[in-house]
Amino acid sequence: MSRINDEEVRKALDKKAAYGADIDMGRYDEGEKDVEQIEDLSDTPDDIQKKMINVGVNTDDSDKDGTILFINNAMSHCSNRAQEGLIIMSTQKALEKYSWARDYYWKAVDPVKDKYTAKTYEERSDGYFIYVKPGYHLKFPVQTCMMLEQNKSVQNLHNIIVVDDDASCDMITGCTTIHGANDALHVGVSEMYIGENSSLSFTMIHSWNRETAVRPRTNIMMKKNSRYVNNYVLLDPVGTIQSFPTAYLDGEGASCSFNTMCIAHENSNIDTGGCAMLNAPNTGAEILSRNITYGGKMIARGRLIGNAPGVKAHLECKSIILKDGGVTQAIPELEASCADVEMTHEAAVGKIARDQIEYLMSRGLTEDEAVSMIVRGFLVGGIKGLPANLQKDIDAAIDKASEGS
Amino acid sequence: MSLLEIKDLHVEAGGREILKGVTLSLEEGETCVLFGPNGSGKSTLLSTIMGYGQTSVTSGKIIFKGTDITNMSVDRRAKLGIGMMMQRPPNVIGVKLGELVKVTAANGKGTTGHEKEFKMQDFMERDVNVGFSGGEIKRSELLQLSAQSPDFVMLDEPESGVDIENIGLIGKKVHELIRGTDDGRKNVSAFVITHTGQIMDYIGADKAFVLIHGRIAREGDPAAILDDIKQNGYGVDDE
User: Fold this and answer.
1) SS3 sequence, A112-166?
2) Which of A291, A344, A376, B9 is the most exposed place for a label (fewest CB within 10 A)?
3) Does pTM top 0.90 for this prediction?
């Protein structure tokens, strides 16, 4: 990315995003930077702990290699159990401590992309910095929790994840509101870099409030033979979310998959998906989206761009409509600038077939139980390649949502 | 009191009247076979007894264990003791067979852990019916029914699409479903659709009905009726 022009960034502070409703950022106060410090995770207050668990982040971190908790705009907890091979701290601290951290700062995401990235740049927002050294394969996942506590405020975060060559890392990140924060805005810029022969699995579970606005901005830079898995889970009501993470497969043989499962409740406006730029030979991508519309608005996007020979990619958007009144839109896009590519897509929107529901009912399940079982299977089927120890967290979240519907 | 009584049942499906006044009864412990040419309404009759929504009762009544179930939901009928093996059950993507068997047993009277007996141990983690062969579908249906353990079971062509190797196992399992094993005798009632009569070798039917053009045309001894059909046909053209 070319040198950043501060004047252009200032101009971009009013730049509307390509997708999603425009949000007046002037409505929100700056999020607090003076937050409670939790030294030992086991001392986490009960209410915070409960919220963390709800989005798959555990205070019992015996099976985690690192944990970060952000509240509003500052870090509340950071621990590193892996020690060797892993650097984990706040982004601003990493920039102070390591000159090389600059090589990953605003190099994957352009600050002039839209008003949200520009604001994050202007604010010099903090976030988490995770670096896995070459040759290290983290045994357990690293978990992060971004908690939005202050109503009428904006949480501005800037995260950087680097998995250097011949290394691997599983991450689970849970984002949620607490203490009555409802009409608030979460902006999260995430820059990810995956080295040669390395892999990153990034699972994000979101649980917001009914009026919360959410604008993540994520790009992933991928080198030769690297692998990226992005899982996104949103089962609770939200005001508006617009997210379109983009992977740049610049190294030969790189592959990525984006798996999304969302429930669009009444008054929720969700616009999500993923994009893969297949720029190098023999790269591959899979974008899978499984959504339920329960009276809300659900837009599932997927874009595959094939720019090199030997590209193989598939895109699948499927939505089940459980309640009238909402809108469901599947927008699959395929683009190729090269003849030797194999790119396909599949999209389907509709209700659950009546014969399937009745078939389960003939085994004694009530109609609601039958629908729940099918919905659960439908959503879970959309998430592939989850680390086994994360699967149970997702299952629990779906069970909870199914009970509520 | 009969276990099942059907009184002057008229049923529409796809905007057409399929059953045009069916009256029959089935006693406790009785196994009945249902013959009839293609399109005569056999599967519609079983679907209507189970309560599937693609059929709609325009008049008449279905009484089971003394209760009028004509307008009862499918799951309440199942809980009352009715079970069904469909000829072509739907694929249920995302629902694992093992999961369905477990929840079926929890709602019914049967038990889990019998998948090996049905040669279904490799299918428990697979989506229900997805990519199953003819024989695998029948074994899967019977495994589910064994977990449900209904008092009255309806089997829609249990031998269709089943190879010679499988027919013995399926016949044995149908027998066990209705009569029980040596360890535990049962006296379940059954209603079985068959074209070939092959399944009768395993279950020993008590009574047969012949359904033609949506009406019961004949009722009587199963072996005699089957012989007659084999020799003389149904006396009608296939619809």
Assistant:
1) CCCHHHHHHHHHCCCCEEEEECCCCECCCCEEEEEEECCCCEEEEEEEEEEECCC
2) A344
3) no
